[in-house]
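Notebook entry, structure prediction.
Reason for the run: the old model in the group folder had no record of what sequence produced it. Starting over properly, with the input documented here first.
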Amino acid sequence: MLDESGLDLLFQKARTPRRWLAKPVETSTLQRLYDLVSLGPTSGNCSPARFVFITGSEGREKLRPALSAGNVNRVMGAPVIAIVAHDPLFFEYLSRLCPNEELRSWFAADVGLAEETAFRNGTLQGAYMIMAARALGLDALPISGFDQATVEEAFLTDTGWRANFLLCLGYGETESLPPRAPRLAFEEACRLL
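New structure, fully documented this time:
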């Protein structure tokens, strides 16, 4: 079990930054980040998430037109912007990822099931990325205010991947953050049956 400092790092004291420090994120950190994310469970080990890490100015400028106005400054200032996507054809890897099961045929025969599985498990892997980033000392800002079609056209057309959300990564400027917003109480959000 994690001690309080571990819980603080991941949840209790972790905050979503609004501004970023001018400190780069090393490629080796992004590789380590993915290595951790890839270990999180997905159904049938399907691992449908795909990630595009934008670190340079050319990629940022391609992304800019897709961002909602309120997100431009927060996103563009991040050292790394990850497009969290999923591969609708994830099942083509199942013979390697889950070799003892014959799962490929299920998804190849049912486009709806494949899309639902890819989206659900890809989202789950995106959440793992937030936790893994915090565990590695990075801050994370998830963004859904963007035009999906523009992002897919600019970055994903040659892959067939589908964009889910953006995840800004780096070292946040946390000194001027407002108090944490309230959360629902257990009794409001949970049921025991």
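Summary: The radius of gyration is 18 Å.
The old model has been moved to the deprecated folder.
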